[in-house]
Amino acid sequence: MIRLLRWTRQHPGLVAELAAYGFWLLVDLVLSVESGVVEPLVAAVAVPLVVLLRRRPGARLVSTAAIAIGLSVAISLIMAVRQAAFATTTPVSALSLTEQLALAIVVVAVLRQCPLRPALLLTAAAALAIVGSPIMRMPESGSSGFGLLSALGWGGAVAIGLVLREIDTRRRAAVEDIRSAERMELARELHDVVAHHVTGIVVAAQAAAVVARTSPDDVDRALAAIETAGSDALTAMRRMVGVLRGQDMEGARTPGAELAEVRTLVHRFDPEARLVRLTGDPGLEHAVLPPGVAATAFRVVQEALTNVRRHAPHVAAVEVDVRIREEALLVSVRNDGVTPAPVGGRSGGFGLVGMSERVAALDGTLTAGPTAPGVWTVSVRIPLRGSR
């Protein structure tokens, strides 16, 4: 029972769709039993099943929608041919309400997710299936009225699909703006790193000139220092170019904050130490980390705690864990008290988009999402070897 409730909370859209199908399928079943017409009941079962296949991992929405629409049109044609051949009159129950709902969902889905050309073609085909079904299935049973209602339903589905498509388009644009701004900030901060390394090269070169005159045996050590500083500068420059080109796997961060400041950050968030529990490896705040790793970890914890304030009004416990395992820095922020959110929920914010960009710039990974009912976890893994 608990597992079922958890699955229900994780898939609210699917649960709502199944509930709607179940209700209208019951109505279609009653009408079909009273009229003795079988085809609408077949459509009420077959078309929604095909539409539900779009939720399978790797399923192609265009193919699924085309099959569902084609199946509906085929059933309408079969019923129309039967009426013409046997001169029968089909009752009003020939129209499947469950089938109409499934086709409307298809219209919304293709307009929201598919490329423009196939979306328009499938929407037009769905109009034929939705509006044409009452005309083909019951030409002598007041099909004009049902045709008008079907047209209104198709129009409403088109409107909803276009609105959702516009929302998704704006969201993608906003996410890209966030990522672009983050890349530019990365580039500006990397400029400071490069300037630091170049300054070190100049100083090392000046020192090498002095060493060459006073202690020739130490020249190799001075040249090695210059080589190291030059290599670090080239690495930073390469990462900066990668950021400006939009290559998420490149980049670096300047040490604007250290791990020692995480404790101060937690104290500011919870001065009385009632909510937040900070754990980690002893002495980690004094560890020497590659440039930018500590700063990125600090910013991730900062963003996660900010989201706790915004999205978990009933929080009772927050766990912040920072440790090094297998040559990687692991950061985890886990909290309860998350209120139920609409589909897409808490992940709709843009703060973690920027954090993900920072983490990816260091060859790391960031995951954020519910890990239990009412519990949200942000986890980060940043490799230490590849970040140098």
What is the strand tally?
5
How much strand? 5-15%
**Roughly how many Å is the radius of gyration?**
31 Å
Order of helices and strands: HHHHHHHHHEHEEHEE
Low-confidence stretches: 247-256, 342-348
Which structural category fits the helices and strands? Answer: alpha+beta
Largest β sheet strand count, sense and barrel closure: 5 strands, mixed
Distance between the termini: 49 Å
Q: Record the strand order, biggest sheet.
A: 1-2-3-5-4
Shape: elongated
Helix content: 55-70%
How many domains would you count in the coordinates? Answer: 3
Residue-averaged pLDDT, rounded?
Answer: 80
Work out the helix count.
11
Structure overview:
With 388 residues, this protein is of the alpha+beta class. The protein has 3 domains: 2-141, no CATH class; 178-244; 260-383, Histidine kinase-like ATPase, C-terminal domain (Heat Shock Protein 90). It has helices at residues 2-10, 12-35, 39-52, 61-86, 97-113, 116-137, 143-214, 219-244, 260-269, 293-311, 351-361, and strands at residues 276-280, 318-324, 328-335, 365-372, 375-383. It has a 5-stranded mixed beta sheet. A hairpin with a 2-residue loop joins strand 4 and strand 5 (375-383).
Summary, kept brief:
Helices cover 64% and strands 10% of the residues.
Secondary structure blueprint with pairings:
Elements: H1 2-10, H2 12-35, H3 39-52, H4 61-86, H5 97-113, H6 116-137, H7 143-214, H8 219-244, H9 260-269, E1 276-280, H10 293-311, E2 318-324, E3 328-335, H11 351-361, E4 365-372, E5 375-383
Helix pairs in contact: 2-3, 2-5, 3-4, 3-5, 4-5, 4-6, 5-6, 5-7, 6-7, 7-8, 7-11, 9-10, 10-11
